[in-house]
Specification:
single chain; 529 residues; alpha+beta; Rossmann fold; Jelly Rolls; 2 domains; seven-stranded mixed β-sheet; 26 strands; 28% strand; disordered N terminus; hydrolase; FrsA_esterase
């Protein structure tokens, strides 16, 4: 299920397999959606597994009265009967995609799980528009699907309306898991899902798409492009994505006539639920891409640290692999890797093998010998796996004055630490910032090389400084991308500062000038110091 891409075209296709969030169940007092077997039929699949297609009718689109069809397929594994009920796994696709064919979930069927896979609102043959995991819409859809699972006589039940249920999927197929579990927690007082396995998904959607208000242009355009074939997005979102790319700022309604995406996405992710005091008390297998340029490693860290209880975290595993939503890193130059050493270390195979083994232990209660619970396991570009308890910075390195031109020029690299050193977690820097222009911007990340001339960006990610008005000598804390990297002997870890970035193409400063940080201190999460 782990996906990478080496070109923009491939990444748009990836995104069509990717952004995730979901929600479950009708709001209190609302009529429950009804199930209609509009396409009920037994599909031609290999013996011993039966498949049934159907659609349910869910909540109408805003301002409309017609209920929306949400279509799904239920796969029943060999041997599943009312006398021998089995746990169920729910699956959904990434952005622009559609529900899985049997082969895509065969590993779970072979392991004795039933599978329900569904087309999310606005995609596949489901109706409506994609509201990017709005609790009131996609959340209601997921809750209705849980009710479908609860009525299957061959599914193991933990109580009335409470099936033994796990969930899988990446990107958009990870988001539905969070919105579903949180919405069930909000409406029923329990998440109902018994285990989640979200991959390459988000904690805060606005911060993912526009960190510090600076739009990840290539991904905003790819998101829009991937939804065009099915006209998935509401018209105002298409308009907002174009506005963001053109104006260089994330539309928040402050400019007359523009959309307010901050408000539109306010509830669409774990952050909103966490801000309202909700935590999930269920085990999770979190997969995140170290080289993910859309939902970067930091988003996974936030879900690990904030979206679940301490008890749940002790029963959970975090794995970061080299991959995710990936675009070529040309300016500044980055590195390419597509490996998963941590799943291999923990389960002897890929992430799917780890996923099945994790579910066997937490859903079936089997002693599988699986280790690594309560820890974060991060892949380095060199195909090594490092394990940490916390991503917090623990080491400070003073590097003096850092400066770059705005809007033009090449990346500049400043030495931070000589190898050998291993850095794994979330670094940041502090210092006194001066920028005299308007809409002052620069992009920062960590790099590794033998000299500033050959230093390459670690795991391809940068984060922006965004100062809308002039500042002189103001103390700032500046976020740097989360990383996992081994700096070998004979090489240096650098702070790379660049006026432009291909991920944030067109988002540099509009006026010439310079960004200067004096008394700069880089705070690093060093392992084994």
């Amino acid at each position: 299920m782990r996906r990478t891409a080496a070109s923009l075209a491939a990444s748009v296709a990836l995104l069509a397999g990717g952004l995730a969030t979901a929600a479950t169940g009708p709001a209190s007092g609302a009529p429950a959606p009804t199930t209609t077997a509009t396409a009920a039929a037994t599909a031609k699949v290999p013996a011993k597994v039966t498949a049934r297609d159907a659609c349910l009718q869910s909540v109408p689109e805003p301002g409309e009265s017609a209920e929306v069809d949400i279509c799904y397929t239920v796969f029943r594994p060999a041997g599943a009967t009312a006398r021998r009920p089995v746990p169920m796994v729910m699956h959904s696709h990434g952005w622009g995609g559609q529900r899985a064919e049997q082969g895509e979930v065969q590993a779970f069927l072979d392991a004795g799980y039933g599978v329900l896979t569904f087309d999310q609102r606005g995609f596949g043959v489901s109706g409506g528009h994609a509201h990017v995991e709005d609790p009131a819409l996609e959340g209601r859809d997921v809750r209705a699907l849980v009710d479908v699972v609860a009525r299957l006589p061959w599914v193991r039940m933990d109580g009335p309306g409470d099936p033994r249920l796990g969930a899988i999927g990446g990107s958009y197929g990870g988001g539905y898991q969070y919105v579903g579990a949180f919405e069930l927690l909000r409406t029923r007082g329990t998440p109902v899902f018994d285990a989640l396995a979200p991959q390459i998904t988000w904690h805060d959607l606005s911060q993912s798409l526009a960190p510090s208000g600076v739009v990840r242009t290539e991904w905003a355009l790819a998101l829009s492009a991937a939804s065009l074939p099915s006209d998935a997005l509401p018209a105002n979102v298409y308009k907002a994505l174009v506005e963001g790319a053109a104006l260089g700022v994330w539309p928040d309604g402050s400019i007359p006539g523009t959309e307010d995406m901050v408000r539109f996405f306010r509830k669409n992710g774990p952050k909103w639920h966490v801000d309202h005091g909700r935590r999930l008390d269920i085990p999770m297998l979190l997969g995140q891409g170290t080289t993910d340029g859309l939902f970067p490693l930091e988003q996974g860290f936030r879900n690990w640290q904030r979206a679940m209880t301490d008890r749940a975290r002790r029963r959970s595993i975090f794995v970061a692999y080299n991959g995710g939503h990936v675009l070529p890193a040309v300016l500044p130059a980055g590195t390419t890797a597509d490996t998963d050493p941590c799943s291999r270390k923990l389960a002897g195979g890929g992430f799917e093998d780890l996923n099945v083994r994790f579910f066997d232990q937490v859903l079936k209660g089997r002693r599988t010998g699986l280790r690594g619970f309560g820890r974060m396991h991060l892949a380095t570009p060199g195909d090594r796996c490092t394990t940490i308890a916390s991503p917090a910075a623990n080491t400070a390195r003073r590097i003096g004055t850092v400066a770059t031109l705005e809007g033009v020029g090449t990346p500049l690299s400043y030495p931070v630490a000589a190898g050998p050193v291993r850095v794994a977690g979330t670094p940041y820097l502090t210092g006194r910032l001066t920028a005299l222009g308007v809409q002052n911007r620069a992009f920062l990340g960590l790099a590794v090389g033998t000299s500033p001339l050959d230093a390459r960006l670690v795991q391809n990610n940068v984060l922006p400084i965004n100062e809308p008005t002039p500042v002189v000598g103001q103390q700032r804390r500046v976020a740097l991308p989360s990383v996992a990297v081994d700096v070998p002997e004979g090489q240096q870890l650098y702070l790379m500062v660049t006026p432009i970035s291909d991920t944030f193409v067109g988002m540099g400063s509009r006026l010439p000038g310079a960004v200067t940080i004096e008394d700069t201190v880089v705070h690093l999460p060093v392992v084994g110091r």
